Amino acid sequence: MDNLLLMRGGRRSPLRGFLIRLAPWAALLTLGIYSAYLILSRGLNQTNMDNRFVFGLWIFTDLGVIALGAGAFFTGALLYLLKRRELKAVINSAVVLGFICYSSAVVLLALDVGQPLRAWFTFWHPNAHSMLTEVTFCISCYLFVLTVEYLPVILRNRRLRQVPLFLVLEFQLHKVMPILAAIGAFLSFFHQGSLGGLFGVLRGRPFAYREGLALWPSTFFLFILSAAAVGPSFLLVITWIVSKVSGRRLMPPEARRLLARISGYMLLVYVALKGADTLVWINWTAPAAGLHPFWFYAYQPFGTWVLFSEIVLFGLLPALILSSRRSRGRWLVPAAATACAGVLLNRFVMTIQTLSLPTLAFDGFLTYIPSWQEVAAFAGILAYGVLVYSVSFRYLPLYAQERRLTLDSKAERHVPVKEERHVSVGV
Amino acid sequence: MFPWVYDFRWEPTHLIFLSLFFAVLLTLVSLLMLTVTRTVRALRQGTAEAIRWAEDFHDLPDSSKACRHELTGEVARRTCARGFDCRACEGHATFPSAPAAPSPAAVGDPPTADILGFHTPADRLYHRGHTYVQPEADGTVTVGLDAFASRLIGRPDEIFLPPPGSQLTVNGTAWRLRKGTAEVRILSPVDGEVTEQGGDPLGWVLRVRPAGESLDSRHLLRDGEIRPWVLRELERLEGLLSRGPTGISLADGGAPIEDLASAIPEARRDEILGEMLLEP
C-alpha cells in the first residue's frame, strides 16, 4: 500500500503489521499527551516533586537523553569536519537520534518549567548569570540545527524527491551541512558543559558541588567528555537493536569499529578524569565543607557500590572493551550498552541521589517516587522516540549502506566478463 | 536582560553571551536564506534534473558505472565519473573516437543485429539507461526503450509521458512508468524538445527535436560498443536476479524471457527495475 514511499530495495514489513506493532507505542504516547495536558493545565502539583526535591524523573531523563543524543553532533563533526567518511553510513541515523533526544529534552523541560504561555520569557527575560540560561539557549538553537539537519533526510524520501523543489532543497541543504555540523558541535559543547557547570554553583549540595578552573567546575568538562564518549556508543546500540528487529544489516564493520574505538578512547579519558575528580572531592572539596566524604554513602541504597559501579563497572570496563583492538564484534554492543548505562547512572547520581541526601542537621534522607503523571510523560516521550525512529527507518534512508550490506554475499563479488564475450567485441 | 528591556545594564558577560548567541543565530538564519536563494536559482535555471541524476549516479554501485571503454576492452578497468556523459569527459577524447551518428539517409534500411535475441538495429544509438535514439529525416529523433528494457519491463501498467513542448535533458527524466507496484523513471538520452508522443510503450515513445543545430551523440553507444554493453547488462541482471531469496536465475548464455518483470516477485521487482534502469 505504501510501497512507493519506501526506499528502493529497502525491504520493510507490510504496512498493516507495521501499524499493529506501533499501536501500543501510539497508545503510550496518547497517555503521555494526556498527562502532559494535566501537568500544564493543573500545574506541578501533579508531580511528586516539591521545593525540596526539585530534580525528578524528568530532569534525570533530560540530562540522560541530552548525553545520549550527543552522537549526532559528534558523528557530524567527525564526518564533516574531520572527514571520517566511514561514518557516512550512519550519519542520518545519528541525526534522527539526536533530533529525538533533543526534542524530547525540550518537551520534558517545558513540562518541568510549566507555564507554557510564558515560555518566551526564557528568551526575552533571560538571567545572564544562570548556567541554565545558556543551556536553554543552546538547546533551543541546537534543536533548530538538528531540525534543519533532519530536513534533508526527510526530503530524501523517494516520493518527495520527485518534487523538484524538495530535490533541489535537499541538495542545497547538504552543501551547508559542514557549517551546521560545526555550529552543532559548538552548541553541544557549551550546553553539555553548562549542564555540568550547574554543579559549580550548588554549594548547598556538597555531594555534587565541584570546583574547577576559573568559572568552570570539573563537572563542566566531565559532562562534555562523557556525552561525547557515549554518543557513538548509543548509536551502536540503537543500530544493533534496529538491525535485529528489521533483520537487515545496517552498519559496515569499519564504521562499527570506528565508533567503538572513539567511544572507548574517550571513555578512558573520561574515567581517568572522573577518577581524579573523585579523589579531589574526597580529599579536598568534601572535607572543606566540614563533611567526611563517605558519610554521603551511609544512606542506603546509595552505598559506595554506586561510585564503584559508575567508575569501574560502567566506565572502565566498557572503555577497555571498546578501545581494545582485539575486541570481538559480539562484545562491542554489550560494552556500548554498559557505557550508556554508565552515563545514565552518572546523571542519576548527580540529580536524584544528590537531592536525596540530607544537607542540614535537621534534614533527613529523602525518597522520591515519581507520580503516575510523571511516569506517563516519561513513557510518552519514550513512545515518541520509538514512533519517530520507526517511521523514519521505514520511509527514509537512515543507513546509506543498508541495501548493499544486506545483499547476498554472492552478489557482492564482482562478476568478471567472460573471455568468450570479449571475443565478440567489434561485431 | 536585553537592551530594550526595562532596567537593563550592560555587563561584560552580557556582551560575550549576546555576541555568541546572536552570532550563532545570524549564521543559522544566513545559511537558511542562502540555501533558499540557491534553491530558487537552481529551480529557475532548470538544474533539478541534473541534480537528480548526479545524486542517483553517485548512489549507483561501481559495477553499474563501468566506462564504455572498459566494456569494449580498450581499458582493463575504468569507472565513469561523468555520469555517462562523455561530452564532458576529457578521457573519452583520448580513445579512438566512435563514428558520428548515423546519417538520416540510412534510415529505412536498417541493418539489424541480434544479441542473445535482443533486436538491436545498428542504425540506432543507445543510452546507458536503456533507451535508443533513432535520427529521422526531418531532423528530429525517435526515442524509445531498447529491446533489453522492453523485454525486462514488458507492457507497463501505466506510463507518464511528458507533453509535447516539454524540454528534456540528457540523463534527466524522459518519462516514468509503472509496472505493478514498481515505478521507475526512464533517462532521457538527448537534450531537446518533445514534439510528439508515441502510442505504444514497446515501440517508439517520444519524438524529440534535439537542442542545438544537430544531435550531439558523443555520449551514446553505437556499433561495436553495443554488444559488450548488452552482455554486461545481462550479467548485471543475472547478478541481481540471483540475489536474495527469489531463487530466480538465468542459465549462462540464456536470454531473459519476454516480460521478465511479471515473473519477478513483486517484492523485488521495484529494486531490480530501478537498478537496471539506473534509478537506485
UniProtKB/TrEMBL annotation, chain A:
GO terms for cellular component: plasma membrane. It is a multi-pass membrane protein. Pfam families: NrfD. Gene3D superfamilies: Formate dehydrogenase/DMSO reductase domain. Keywords: Cell membrane, Membrane, Transmembrane, Transmembrane helix. The chain crosses the membrane at residues 18-37, 57-82, 89-111, 131-155, 176-200, 220-242, 262-282, 302-322, 331-355, 375-396. InterPro entries: Electron_transfer_protein, NrfD-like. The keyword Membrane applies. It is found in: Cell membrane. Belongs to the NrfD family. This is Molybdopterin oxidoreductase. It comes from Handelsmanbacteria sp. (strain RIFCSPLOWO2_12_FULL_64_10). The lineage of its organism: Bacteria, Candidatus Handelsmaniibacteriota.
From TrEMBL, chain B:
SUPFAM superfamilies: Single hybrid motif. Keywords: Membrane, Transmembrane, Transmembrane helix. Pfam families: GCV_H (PF01597). The chain crosses the membrane at residues 15-36. It comes from the Bacteria. This is Uncharacterized protein. It comes from Handelsmanbacteria sp. (strain RIFCSPLOWO2_12_FULL_64_10). The lineage of its organism: Bacteria, Candidatus Handelsmaniibacteriota.
